[in-house]
Amino acid sequence: MVKKKVIVAVTGASGSVYAKVLFDALLKLKDQIEAVGVVMSDNAKEVWQFELGNQDYNQFPDFKFYSKNDFNAPFASGSAKYDTMIIVPCSMGTLGRIAHGISNDLITRAADVILKERRKLIAVVRDTPFSLIHINNMKTVTEAGGIICPANPSFYSLPKSIEEVAGTVISRVLDLAGFEQESYRWQEK
């Protein structure tokens, strides 16, 4: 099995629980992973602290964290061969900058690299309702090869906690990223 090199970007959109659940899931999938590079915006850290009441994003030593302006991060260049980027949650501002080729920080630069190299970009957008600008930006990113995966949970697995609800979205994200995982499958035993 070829191990994946994954970028996880966390923006300041509401939904820090999605990033937390993704981090926990990636730890469980470490046998399928070569490297995980993480970049968080300043707003992402503030929102995490507000929504989750902690700074546990500092508690993932298996991942390499990069500052939002570190253009020396390996995934700022296509030569590093990171194959997947997951933006979770993805703010509409970040999505708009990606859609219009504005690489003003490491998140948007990494997304630009992933798209230009024809690799997998998964944007877990977390906003409602969508304006026409949002929809057009989602269309542009999709046409460029990205995948828009709204943070719309499912309930047929009968989740019992907020983390399990978020897990229904993260399970889809991990499927889209090509990971082999155990998860609820509709009408499968």
TrEMBL record:
One of its GO terms (molecular function) is flavin prenyltransferase activity. It is an enzyme of class 2 (transferase). It catalyses: dimethylallyl phosphate + FMNH2 = prenylated FMNH2 + phosphate. FMN binds at G12, A13, S14, S41, S91, M92, G93, T94, R126. Its EC number is 2.5.1.129. The keyword Aminoacyl-tRNA synthetase does not apply. Residues 4-175 form the Flavoprotein domain. Dimethylallyl phosphate binds at Y156, R172. SUPFAM superfamilies: Homo-oligomeric flavin-containing Cys decarboxylases, HFCD. The keyword Plastid does not apply. Transmembrane segments: none annotated. Keywords: Flavoprotein, FMN, Lyase, Prenyltransferase, Transferase. InterPro entries: Flavin_trans-like (IPR036551), Flavoprotein (IPR003382), UbiX-like (IPR004507). Flavin prenyltransferase that catalyzes the synthesis of the prenylated FMN cofactor (prenyl-FMN) for 4-hydroxy-3-polyprenylbenzoic acid decarboxylase UbiD. The prenyltransferase is metal-independent and links a dimethylallyl moiety from dimethylallyl monophosphate (DMAP) to the flavin N5 and C6 atoms of FMN. HAMAP family: ubiX_pad. NCBIfam families: ubiX_pad. Belongs to the UbiX/PAD1 family. This is Flavin prenyltransferase UbiX. It comes from Pedobacter kyungheensis. The lineage of its organism: Bacteria, Pseudomonadati, Bacteroidota, Sphingobacteriia, Sphingobacteriales. The gene is ubiX.
